[in-house]
Amino acid sequence: MNPTLLLSLFLLAGGLSFFYQRLFEAVTVYEYEAGFLYRRGLLTTELAPGRYRLRKGISEIRKLDRRQQNLSIPGQEILTQDLIQLKISLVISYLIQDPRKVLQEIENLRNNLYLHLQILLRSVVQAEKLETLLENPSPWITHLQEQARKELAAWGVELCSLSLKDLMLPGDLKRAYAQVFKVQKEAQAQLEKARGEQAALRSLANAARMLEKNPELLNLRLIHTLENSQNSPTLVFQVGSGFLRPYEPPAEKG
Q: What is the pTM of this model?
């Protein structure tokens, strides 16, 4: 074959390939994605998973990830009802349940979630006092979760979970709470010590009453002690009037 003809065919094939690539594009919609076909700016259909070739400038495929996703809401400074400044951060997980609604009505889902949850968090925290937020966090976190779930559902998004990530106090207040905690623990230790001493005193008082009513118990206790002692010097006791005392030899008469 004529070399010139071969070169011409090669150049023609390369030109057609280049033209085709400039004119068309390939897009893959994965199984975990929702894909939507737009033609001349109009949403025409929702696509099944697969690979599609589109005419550039005329058709476009937009995709959304339908897997569960996480979003961290960084700490923001918020004033409580009693005007104490806190820094609170959250983490949420969510699923897109209505991808068509999300695509058509929300410009940037993650950005909107971020801003909306910040506003919700601020409104809930500002309605509570510091003591409530710290000592009983479950009710206000549950309230925040319910509010967020209700409002996100209107966007076609399911809130799977909402958790408190960090709650930070100002430095001086943190030191004050640490001191209060220390004092409480010391007081608790003193109380337990006092209770133990009271229990010991009650036990001794009960034992004294028993000995007063039954003096022979002291003799039995002594015998038990002597039986269990080893390598001890021999002691001689005199028994009398229900009590034991060391034996003393009679004094010599002069």
A: 0.62
